[in-house]
Amino acid sequence: MLDKKNLRFETRQIHGGYSVDQTGSRGLAIYPTAAYHFKSCDYAANLFELSEGGNIYTRLHNPTTAAYEQRISSLYNAVGALAVSSGMAAIFITVTALAQAGDNIVAAPFLYGGTYNQFRVSLRKLGIEVRIAATERIEDFEELIDANTKMIYVESMGNPTCDVPDLEAIARLATAYDVPFVVDNTFGAAGFLCNPFDWGANIVVDSATKWINGHGTAMGGIIVDGGNYNWGNGKFPQIDGPSEGYHGLNLYETFGNQAFIVKCRVDGLRDFGCCPSPFDSYLMLLGLETLSLRVAHQVESCRTLAEYCLNHPKVSRVSYVGFEDHPGYKNAQKYYRFGASAVMNIELKGTLESTVQFVESLKLMGNMTMIGDSISVVTHPASTTHKQLSEEDMAAAGVTPTLLRISLGLENVEDIIDDFEQAFECVDNE
Ligand SMILES: Cc1ncc(COP(=O)(O)O)c(C=O)c1O
């Protein structure tokens, strides 16, 4: 007997959030609308005071986006998901839902450059202190936690170093201090490579711009609620307490284990407005249908390219999480399907200038700040994603002048290797 609750990932990425509508259409409809007709003023009033569910305005709800959110929630085995306009927006809405001026959050040292900047510059200006652990050792997280700590935040695989924190141990620490554990799972490919909820995470954020979309055609972010945190523990009066924006409504009493994701929607999206367009939600739904196939191909190509680089005289270091000498190897074996992702880093021999020359000589690879695309991409973090960081912070994030981040696409990897060969011939860096 087919039990729909136990469908496998590959099946849920196609069937999740889909139901046949009155037209019988196989494709999910795009609803390009800003507003919705209210059948009565009473009904509208119920929607506005959250006593009834339904569409109010596309900043908060849209049927295409709802299907996308349901599919994501199903892939993660979660209680709910919220789609927003970018990964950065997902992080910002999550943080501001939980932390206020005077609070702090404790974060891992290996973070995407944009996240690092949001944390260290913008959140500080809002009075939220971000404490970055010196290393990913549990003691280094623990010593930063105090009574005002409102979350522990890590990336399930750090961008760009590909370090993998010990998710299960950090989840234990978060539980011991009764603090929500939030994981940026962009590299985990919507749960296909890694599902942080399996290891005790409470909330996942994800840049859907990457593997979920998969073709570099839209920006997006998602927030996913595991439904496994006790918001009634007295630490979060904005969730379990009278809500200022909704005439004293208590979100936890009203929405139970979905209270957090409801808060992100009804406060976060309502007040900050970073909603996705219905068309972009459609592109995400389409991307999800092939996610597992794309990612499996990319991971395999990445391993092949890493092996090629290992033996190349113009490469000084290969940092690939699937190799035993990578600091994240052991944790990747435990937390990541295939023990790896589709991203690797290499350091070239030579200087910043010869590295730039190599990048500019590549003919197939995209020179972009992108990962998870159908096109293979090379990024020079020192002149792009991490450029805003001080030299000290750059070094702490593992970014050197000759470091290149490589994300494998869907091409035949032998063509990518040929592209590398011809670009190496253009550079005198041995
Ligand atoms: C790990 C990680 N988190 C968040 C983001 C931000 O996502 P977006 O570019 O969709 O705002 C990125 C972007 O590269 C990322 O790599």
Characterization of the model:
The chain is an alpha/beta fold and 430 residues long. The chain has two domains: 258 residues, Type I PLP-dependent aspartate aminotransferase-like (Major domain) (Aspartate Aminotransferase, domain 2); 136 residues, Aspartate Aminotransferase, domain 1. The chain has 15 helices and 14 strands. α7 links the parallel β4 and β5. The longest helix has 20 residues. The protein is globular, with a radius of gyration of 22 Å. It starts with 8 loop residues before the first helix and ends in a 5-residue tail after the last helix. The structure holds pyridoxal-5'-phosphate. The site of pyridoxal-5'-phosphate has 14 residues, from α4 and α5.
Concise account of the structure shown:
The protein is of the alpha/beta class and 430 residues long. The chain has helices spanning 9-15, 41-48, 63-76, 87-98, 113-125, 138-142, 167-176, 251-255, 259-272, 278-289, 291-310, 329-335, 352-361, 391-396, 413-425; strands at residues 80-84, 104-107, 129-132, 149-155, 181-184, 203-207, 221-225, 242-243, 249-250, 315-319, 343-348, 366-367, 377-379, 403-407.
Oligomer: single chain
Query: Any idea what the shape is?
Result: globular
Alpha-carbon distance between the termini? 62 Å
Q: Provide the CATH topology of the largest domain.
A: Aspartate Aminotransferase, domain 2
Largest sheet: 7 strands, mixed
Strand content: 5-15%
- List the helices and strands in order: HHHEHEHEHEHEEEEEHHHHEHEHEEHEH
